[in-house]
Amino acid sequence: MKNIIKLIIVIAIANLMMASCKKDSYIIGGKLESTTTNLTTYDYLKNNRFKMFDTLLLLVDKAGLKDVINQKGITFYAPTDFSIDNYLLKKTAEAQNVNIFAKYTIDTLIKYDLSTFADSIRTYIIPQTIKYASLTSNGVILNTAKPGAQVVVSYEQTTDPNLGYNPVVNTIPQVEYYSLVTGALPSPVVSVNLDPSVAIRILCQTTGLTTATGQLNVLSNSHTLYFRQ
Length: 229
Known about the structure:
The chain is an alpha+beta fold. It has helices spanning about 1-20, 40-45, 55-60, 65-70, 80-95, 105-110, 115-120; strands spanning about 75-80, 125, 140-145, 150-155, 175-180, 200-210, 215-220. The chain has a single domain, classed as FAS1 domain. The chain has seven helices and seven strands. The longest helix has 17 residues, at about 1-20.
């Protein structure tokens, strides 16, 4: 029952965020009727009703990473196709500083940067199952599946109306953040106070889904692949 209540809060957050950003109009990729599925992580993403992960899975297939995201007992913080599109747009803008007609497309990524994708996708994988009870509001430092790369994962209360807070309701909503560490962390770590030069904080728009192979969370559509800023 506790997980279901948390999931309802996440859905409410998603519905509120739809009004603020057209890009986030599929913020949770449709309603989740259950916090568990008998599908593998890969198959659950593949069967998303709004096809929010088709480009992600295309890259996963091209890089031979299906078994990587389907490993038993991992937590995959999946970027959506919006995150990949954000990256392509940034790379195109950079290329057009040299050639105004340049385009960086998904085909460009596959042809030249598939090895980068294969390496970097591991920063989205925690080699253990992440449950709400194991997290704190200040954040827990965890190793990713990419050697040397760490993240801070926090489960924080929010008083942001755009994230579901309503002063007339007694229950304060909680949201999960996934922060890639890029510099020296302060001591003690307080996730909400982390400087962008130290960690890149990304809101999780959907959390707590247990698949047949592991745990699946989904990052905000505003995220840019590889945590590019």
